[in-house]
Amino acid sequence: MSRVRKKEDLFYSLLEDLCAELDRSGKAYLDIFESYPDGVERIRAMKDIETECDDKVHNLLTRLYESFITPFDREDINELALKMDDVVDGMENISRRLEIFHVGSMRPEAVELARLTDQGTTELRKMFAHLSNFKRDPVVMEQTHRIHEIEDQADDVYHDAIARLYNENDAPATHLLKWNTIFNHMEDTIDAIKLVSTIVSDVVLKNA
């Protein structure tokens, strides 16, 4: 294997490893929502996952800044790493808000949004598993379409959730504010997953 190829494979490996952390985070995130309010310690465990993800991002960016050879534009690699980090940060932030806001019981729409988030991170992992061969492998672009479909589903769930929330006429204002904030951040996190897939599809199109 040539030295250039080894350098390129390194970045594909680092990106795939980082995406594995997203997938791990997605499963932990869904577990929090499905088991809430039991197992609050899982919320604190999300911080450990987020810290590990930060370390992987730092390592990837350090390698990027030190390398003259990259498989595609270094600006795209940099943006991918940072946006993937945003996804994990979003999940960790939302998980902590459940505790900070003293949320008493879980809403089914929140569980469904968490399920779609987990599904999105799983689809991203499949995408990154094929990224090194993106010029010949159609799976990368197929995964983009799947992730966009997940985001569309999440939009529907989000709008239904907000409508139901504000139909609770007797609910205290603090209850409405808490859940409105949580739902907004959950939607933002799914949008961040879609953004990662869009960056990847742009890389494919630019390098086709």
From TrEMBL:
Belongs to the UPF0111 family. This is PF01865 family protein. The lineage of its organism: Bacteria, Bacillati, Actinomycetota, Coriobacteriia, Coriobacteriales. Signal peptide: none annotated. It comes from the Bacteria.
